[in-house]
Amino acid sequence: PDGCMLTDTLSAIPEIDKSIADFISQNFSEIKAMYQGLIRLGKVDGSIQSSIPDEQLALMVFNLHESTIILSTIDNDGSTQKQVVQDFLQLIA
């Protein structure tokens, strides 16, 4: 019930039909594009000072997002997830 429906689907189904895989891939691409746009805005306003290219940072944020969803299954109080996110934000600020 908690987390990303797309990630949960990938985790729960051992073999995914191509049409479902394509749908999930398209949605993941849209999410990464959204992150890339937000990163671009953050670099413009100075809140993100990383020299890492926007596309690479977007992929890193996407992976961080997905891994914290998986981590939520064992991190009951969310403390590890919060620490990972805070550490990442320090790297890019």
Characterise this structure:
This protein has 93 residues and is mainly alpha-helical. The chain has helices spanning 5-12, 18-45, 54-71, 79-92.
Quaternary organisation: single chain
Give a short account of the largest sheet: none
From the helix content, strand content and strand pairing, which structural class follows?
mainly alpha
Specify the number of helices: 4
Strand runs, count: 0
Please report the distance between the alpha carbons of the first and last residues. 33 Å
The low-pLDDT segments are none
Average per-residue pLDDT, rounded, comes to 86
In which range does the helix fraction lie?
Answer: over 70%
Estimate the strand proportion. under 5%
Shape: flat
Q: Name the helix and strand elements from N-terminus to C-terminus, one letter apiece.
A: HHHH
Radius of gyration: 15 Å
